[in-house]
UniProtKB/TrEMBL annotation:
NCBIfam families: MnmC_Cterm, PRK01747.1-2, tRNA_MNMC2. It catalyses: 5-aminomethyl-2-thiouridine(34) in tRNA + S-adenosyl-L-methionine = 5-methylaminomethyl-2-thiouridine(34) in tRNA + S-adenosyl-L-homocysteine + H(+). Residues 1-250 are annotated as: tRNA (mnm(5)s(2)U34)-methyltransferase. Catalyzes the last two steps in the biosynthesis of 5-methylaminomethyl-2-thiouridine (mnm(5)s(2)U) at the wobble position (U34) in tRNA. Catalyzes the FAD-dependent demodification of cmnm(5)s(2)U34 to nm(5)s(2)U34, followed by the transfer of a methyl group from S-adenosyl-L-methionine to nm(5)s(2)U34, to form mnm(5)s(2)U34. This is tRNA 5-methylaminomethyl-2-thiouridine biosynthesis bifunctional protein MnmC.
Length: 672
C-alpha cells in the first residue's frame, strides 16, 4: 500500500490540483455538472435507485475529493424525501453501499479545503468531513442517513483494493457491484492504474447488467472493457472533457455459458441487407443512424410488397396470464414499437394509423376465465392490459358487443406498407442508404476473405457484412434453410364498410381480427396454412374469414361475399417457439463439436464462445407480429454490429439467438 498526502496544491479558485499527475480533481468551470453527467446520468443512478428495493452497490476507482460519492448521496437522499412525501407507506427500504478505492487519499485538512468550493453539497460534505480520519491509513466504513447509506473506503492500489472484496472463488458470490464509477487520473498520466488486472477484478465483481462510466475515451481502455465483458458506447458530455464512455456488463467471458456469447466484430463501414419489409426498414434506419452505410436488396420492384403490404395491420403484444419469457419480451417490444412509430410520425413521415386501442373479445368460456384471471392479478399494469365488461367494451368500440374482454389502451392499427416506405425514407435522409429493387438473391457464397457474394440471375453483388431480413419467401436460400423456419400462409380480406360496422372505433380480436375502416375498407382475417409458399388469393379463404368472424361474433357486421373489395395472401415466417431470431448465423456443425457434454449435463460449463459463420447476421422469424417486434430487434442487431450495449439481458438475448435451437437439440440429444 502506498499513501502520499503531500502532492496536492490549490489553484486560485480554491480547487485542488494534483502535482503528481499534473491534472485537476474536477472541472470547476462547470461545478458538479460534468461529474453528474458522467457518473450519475451515465449509470442512470436516479432511475435505478428509484426502482431498487434492496441493497444497491456502487464501486469507484479513485475517491479523490469524494465528489462522486457526495453527488450520489444527495441523489439518494432526495429520492427518499420525495418518496416519503408522496406515499403513506413507503416501499421496501432500500440501501446504498458505496465502495471507493483510493491509493493517494487526501488528509482531512485537504479534503475540507477541496470541498469548500462546492457549497451546494455542503450539508453532505460536512457529514463526510465529520467522520473522515485526520490522516487516512486504515480502511474505514462510514455511515450516512441513519445507516441507509454506507461508504466503504479502501486505501490501496485500485486492483489490490478490489481484489480483497468478496474474494470467494465462486464468481456468483463475487458479483456484488451494480454500477461502476471508473474515475481516477487519465491513462496517459496514471498508467499504473489502468492495467489488465484492474479489469479482471471489475469482471469478477460485476453483476450481470452492471453499468460503468468513465471520463476516459482511450482506445486501450475501451478494448479492455470489451475484453472484460462490457458493451461500450461513446457519448458526448459537457465541460473540459467533451466525451465519455458508458458501458454495460452483458457478455461475461467466465459465465460458463459461452454459447450465449455473441461475437464481437469491428464496426463495419458498410453492410448489405436482404429484404424489403418492416424488419429490413427498421434495421436499415437503426444502422444508418449509427453511422453505418447500408445497401438493401429487395426482390420486388418496390419495397413493402411481402407480409408488410397489407392495407391495415394491428399492433399489439402477445400477453399470457403469467409473466413468462414470451410475454415479457412482447411487452417490451410493444412499448418500444409504439414509441418508435410515434417518433417517426412526429418527424413528419406520414402513414395512416390510429392509436385507438384493441379489444380481445372473450367470446367463449375459456377466454372468459383468462380475462377473469388477468383481472384478479397484478401481473400486468393496467396501462398495458385491462379487463372490461360488455358495456365498457361496447362503449370503447363504438358498436354493440355481446361480450366483454381484455383491452389494450396503447394498441391500434397501422397501414404497414406506408409505414415501411416512410421508415426507409427516414433512413435515406441520412445519406447512408441505397436500395436495389428487383434483386432476387438465388444463393450466397463466402469468399476466402470472409466477404460475401450475392448471386442473382443477372448480377453478383459483394457484401462485407450480410444481414438476412427477409421473410418466409427466403427460407429456401442456402444457409438460411438450415434454420428451423416455417412458412405460414395468411390471407386477409378487405371489406366494404356498412352502417352496421362503420362506427367501429377500436381493433377487435377474436380468433381472427377486425379493424376499423381506413378509406372505407375494414380488414378481417387471417387464415393460417402451414408449409405453404402460395401467395395467390383464394375465394374459399375469404369465405373462411367471413365464417370465422360470424362464428365468434355472430351478426356483428352482416357481411356477405359481395362485400369483399379485395383480398391478399402473404407469408408469415415462423419459428418453433414463436419468438423471432436476431443475431449471428451459427456454425451448426461446429456447435455439435464444441458443446457435446451438454447432452449429458445441460449445466455443464463452457466458456468457449459460440462458433458462428463470419459476417453473416439475420433478423427474421417475426411471425404475425412483425410490427410489434421489428424496432426492438433492429436495436439488438445494431448492437451486434456496432458493439454497443444491448437493450435486453443475456437470458432474453439467448431466447432470440439463432443458435438457441442448436443448443436445445444438443441438450435433447437429437444429434446422437
Amino acid at each position: 500500500m502506498v499513501i502520499d498526502q503531500t502532492k496536492i496544491t490549490f489553484q486560485s479558485d480554491g480547487s485542488p490540483y494534483s502535482s503528481q499527475f499534473e491534472d485537476i480533481y474536477f472541472d470547476t468551470n462547470h461545478g458538479t455538472s460534468q461529474s453528474e453527467c458522467v457518473f450519475i446520468n451515465g449509470n442512470k443512478i436516479k432511475t435505478r435507485l428509484e426502482k431498487s428495493t434492496k441493497k444497491f452497490v456502487i464501486a469507484e476507482t479513485g475517491f479523490g475529493t469524494g465528489l462522486n460519492f457526495l453527488l450520489t448521496l444527495a441523489t439518494f437522499d432526495q429520492l427518499k424525501q420525495n418518496e416519503n412525501q408522496q406515499s403513506l407507506s413507503p416501499k421496501t427500504e432500500s440501501t446504498l453501499h458505496f465502495i471507493s478505492v483510493e491509493k493517494y487519499p487526501l488528509s482531512k485538512t485537504q479534503l475540507t479545503q477541496s470541498l469548500k468550493i462546492l457549497p451546494e453539497l455542503e450539508q453532505y460534505s460536512q457529514q463526510l468531513i465529520a467522520q473522515y480520519p485526520e490522516n487516512p491509513e486504515q480502511d474505514i466504513t462510514l455511515s450516512f442517513l441513519n445507516g441507509s447509506v454506507t461508504l466503504q473506503l479502501i486505501f490501496n492500489d485500485a486492483t489490490l483494493g478490489l481484489a480483497q472484496l468478496a474474494s470467494d472463488k465462486n464468481i456468483r458470490v463475487s458479483a456484488i457491484v451494480d454500477a461502476w464509477y471508473l474515475d481516477g487520473f487519465s491513462p496517459a498520466k496514471n498508467p499504473e492504474m489502468w492495467h489488465t488486472g484492474l479489469f479482471q477484478q471489475i469482471t469478477r465483481l460485476s453483476k450481470e447488467q452492471a453499468t460503468l462510466s468513465t471520463f476516459t475515451v482511450s482506445g486501450k481502455v475501451k478494448r479492455q472493457l470489451i475484453s472484460a465483458g462490457f458493451r461500450v458506447e461513446k457519448r458526448p458530455t459537457n465541460g473540459k472533457k467533451d466525451e465519455m464512455l458508458s458501458a454495460v456488463f452483458q457478455q461475461n467471458p467466465y459465465s460458463g455459458k459461452g454459447y450465449q456469447q455473441r461475437p464481437i466484430i469491428a464496426k463495419p463501414q458498410q453492410v448489405s441487407i436482404i429484404g424489403g419489409g418492416i424488419a429490413s426498414a427498421c434495421a436499415a434506419y437503426a444502422l444508418t443512424k449509427a453511422g453505418v452505410k447500408v445497401t438493401v436488396y429487395c426482390q420486388d420492384f418496390s419495397v413493402a410488397q411481402g407480409a408488410s403490404s397489407n392495407n391495415i395491420a394491428a399492433l399489439y403484444p402477445l400477453i399470457h396470464q403469467q409473466a413468462d419469457d414470451i410475454s415479457l419480451f412482447y411487452q417490451q417490444a410493444f412499448e418500444q414499437a409504439v414509441s418508435y412509430y410515434k417518433s417517426i410520425s412526429e418527424q413528419g413521415f406520414h402513414f395512416d394509423h390510429d392509436w385507438c386501442g384493441l379489444l380481445e373479445i372473450s367470446y367463449k368460456p375459456a377466454l372468459e376465465l383468462r380475462q377473469q384471471h388477468i383481472a384478479n392479478s397484478d401481473v400486468w399494469p393496467k396501462n398495458l392490459i385491462q379487463s372490461v365488461d360488455k358495456a365498457t367494451a361496447s362503449e370503447l368500440s363504438g358498436i354493440a358487443l355481446n361480450h366483454g374482454g381484455l383491452f389494450f389502451p396503447k394498441a391500434g392499427w397501422i397501414a404497414p406498407a406506408q409505414l415501411v416506405k416512410q421508415i426507409f425514407k427516414a433512413a435515406e435522409l441520412t445519406n447512408r442508404l441505397r436500395i436495389e429493387t428487383g434483386c432476387k438473391i438465388n444463393n450466397v457464397s463466402q469468399k476466402a476473405d470472409g466477404k460475401w457474394l450475392l448471386h442473382t440471375d443477372k448480377n453478383n453483388y459483394q457484401a462485407n457484412v450480410l444481414i438476412y431480413c427477409g421473410g418466409a419467401q427466403g427460407i429456401p436460400l442456402n444457409l438460411i434453410e438450415q434454420l428451423p423456419l416455417t412458412s405460414v400462409r395468411g390471407q386477409v380480406s378487405n371489406m366494404v364498410s356498412n352502417d352496421k360496422v362503420a362506427k367501429l372505433s377500436t381493433v377487435i380480436c377474436h380468433k381472427g381480427y377486425l379493424t376499423p375502416a381506413n378509406k372505407g375498407l375494414h380488414c378481417i382475417g387471417a387464415t393460417f396454412q402451414k408449409h405453404s409458399f402460395d401467395i395467390e388469393s383464394k375465394a374459399e379463404e375469404d369465405q373462411f374469414n367471413l365464417a370465422m368472424l360470424d362464428k365468434c361474433l355472430p351478426g356483428l357486421t352482416q357481411w356477405q361475399t359481395t362485400d369483399i373489395a379485395s383480398s391478399k395472401a402473404r407469408l408469415r415466417c415462423m419459428t418453433p417457439d414463436h419468438l423471432p431470431m436476431v443475431g449471428a448465423m451459427p456454425d451448426i456443425e461446429a456447435h455439435k463439436q464444441q458443446y457435446p457434454h451438454l447432452s449429458k449435463d445441460k449445466r455443464w460449463r463452457y466458456n468457449e464462445p459460440a462458433p458462428v459463420i463470419e459476417n453473416l447476421y439475420m433478423l427474421t422469424g417475426l411471425g404475425a407480429r412483425g410490427l410489434c417486434t421489428a424496432p426492438l430487434l433492429a436495436d439488438i442487431l445494431t448492437a451486434d454490429i456496432c458493439g454497443t450495449p444491448y437493450p435486453l439481458s443475456n437470458e432474453q438475448l439467448f431466447n432470440l439467438a439463432p443458435n438457441r435451437f442448436v443448443i436445445r437439440d444438443i441438450i435433447r440429444r437429437k444429434f446422437d
